[in-house]
TrEMBL record:
<comment type="similarity">
    <text>Belongs to the DadA oxidoreductase family.</text>
</comment>
<keyword id="KW-0285">Flavoprotein</keyword>
<dbReference type="Pfam" id="PF01266">
    <property type="entry name" value="DAO"/>
</dbReference>
<keyword id="KW-0560">Oxidoreductase</keyword>
<dbReference type="GO" id="GO:0016491">
    <property type="term" value="F:oxidoreductase activity"/>
</dbReference>
<dbReference type="InterPro" id="IPR036188">
    <property type="entry name" value="FAD/NAD-bd_sf"/>
</dbReference>
<protein>
    <submittedName>
        <fullName>NAD(P)/FAD-dependent oxidoreductase</fullName>
        <ecNumber>1.-.-.-</ecNumber>
    </submittedName>
</protein>
<feature type="domain" description="FAD dependent oxidoreductase">
    <location>
        <begin position="3"/>
        <end position="343"/>
    </location>
</feature>
<dbReference type="InterPro" id="IPR006076">
    <property type="entry name" value="FAD-dep_OxRdtase"/>
</dbReference>
Amino acid sequence: MKKIAIIGAGIVGSTVAYYLSKSDMTVTIFDEGHGQATKAAAGIICPWFSRRRHKAWYRLARSGADFYQELLSDLKNDGIATDFYDQSGALLLKSRPEYLEELRELAESRLVESPLIGSLSVQTLAEAQKSFPDLAGFDKGILASGAARVEGSQLTETLIEASGFSLLKEKAELKRLSDGTYDVNGQVFDSVLLACGAWLPDILEPLGYQVDVSPQKGQLRDYYFDDLETGHNPVIIPEGEIDVIPFAGGKVSVGASHEKNMGFDLTVNERILADFEVRAQDFFPKITEAIKTRDRVGIRAYTEDFCPFIGEVPGLKGVYAVSGLGSSGLTTGPLLGKMLSQLVMGQQTALSASDYLISRYIKK
Ligand SMILES: Cc1cc2nc3c(=O)[nH]c(=O)nc-3n(C[C@H](O)[C@H](O)[C@H](O)COP(=O)(O)OP(=O)(O)OC[C@H]3O[C@@H](n4cnc5c(N)ncnc54)[C@H](O)[C@@H]3O)c2cc1C
């Protein structure tokens, strides 16, 4: 029986653990956890309005959004609740009507390959208020009914628990042994899966690798309303950096920042979060009545061309890595986790891994 170590239990590591639990492999998961991007994420799954021209990236993003349906069905078949995911829709706001029309045309051209988008409709403020009464400050928006929001930490906890594998909350170090196996914190493994997010360079650089992965800080704030049912309100995506993300039970998140050159700094920047709140008031004035419950800070992983990668680490047989998921990793992460499980089990991957070649980003 093959012994596998998974290092990192964010969205990638927890998904690969869940799918490997359906094999006969023995798996141990290591997760240090501080600054994990998945726990801090806003959780918006809505890739179809992206104007990025990187075709392989877009294929991954739209297929990643679709893949949630397979993951949900697999979990439901195992008798596991999936209320971490809800297709409550997304309302995109633009300052000019022609920008809205361009967006609608773009998403409509993608409907055939991505029916998950659902219905697309341009809504007036009065129409939008029927599903989200407290909205204000815009004339029209475009609603995509199939967009979803995900509770990242609830999803990873669900997957790890469903896997039944043990999770060691410790920082892992990787060493290659002379017989071709690997030592991780004193235990020996046949294969090691690096799902370390922005921390991938830390684990590979001591082994002589250069890794094109850089950290980017992101923070957002969670609010709570005791008099508002927010469960099925759409996510609001205005122009600029902030989004307003309603979750079930009166919880609303506002964020998130994209802060470069901050390294792995996890301190909350009150000025940035207060500024987000002021900007959110334009569209959702009631935010001033909410109780601030929690600030979340996480570190995203970026590659130079903003595309994730997946594959066997060149020169380290049996060691596989996924990283570089950037700001859309809750969208692409589950599919990449599934693909990682397929690579380790010697199966064909859902998308061609050669479109996300690891050797472009990791060099000896
Ligand atoms: C504020 C914010 C908002 C976001 N919003 C969205 C969104 O709306 N939609 C979307 O699609 N994406 C969003 N993202 C992006 C998404 O969250 C990430 O791309 C994704 O979660 C990355 O997942 P991951 O598994 O690769 O890494 P992570 O979730 O960062 O997990 C990596 C884990 O590995 C652990 N680790 C690393 N090295 C070691 C080691 N040596 N030993 C032990 N453990 C180790 C870390 O501690 C961490 O727990 C957002 C991100 C942030 C920060």
